[in-house]
Protein: DUF5063 domain-containing protein
Amino acid sequence: MNQIIYHKNTIEFVTVAVEFCSFIEQALSSEKKKFTDTAVKILPFLYLKGCLLPECEEPEEVYISEKFVTEEIYELIRNRIASLLGSQDSYLEVFVSDMQYSDTPIVAYISEDLTDIYQDIKDFVSIYRIGIEEQMYEALYNCRTNFKNYWGQKITNVLRPLHGIAFSPDNEEETSNASSPNIPDNTRSILEQRMEEWKDEPDLDHWHE
Structure:
């Protein structure tokens, strides 16, 4: 078990995962150009490290019951990203499971895709921070399984519209979006409070030793 949860590729994935979570959480104070420029760089890196996660067998017992990303936090982040991207949040996707029932592309949303990825990654990182090895192994197994079946595909889907936005000539700084009137005034305080709690949890730096 230790060889897998402390494997070099696992630790490298955790490192990128922490950076990705921080990037998504900072969307509260970001601007569209900076956000999209960073997204098209970190998402391929996250995908690469997900591909390199070591294989692990399904755990015999279930230890994890807690979800760290609540519905409230999920909606706050999703709404913030949607506000940041505006009309460019939606895109037409052809590589989704629902396409088998449709002859036309299906509307998808960058904000929803990114928040779905964040939810899975944040839950994984939070379990690793706790440091209970049985839970870490289960979290790693779940994360790797979800990467293959779920959020790995979401990364490849959402990169296409993000690439179009990031490298569009019109992708200029839009500082007015940083404080959208569509976002409740308490959005920052709620998420920032939760982020402060996450910061107080055990550090991950000792894994690099």
User: Anything to note?
Assistant: The domain at 2-202 is CATH 1.20.120.1550 (Four Helix Bundle (Hemerythrin (Met), subunit A)).
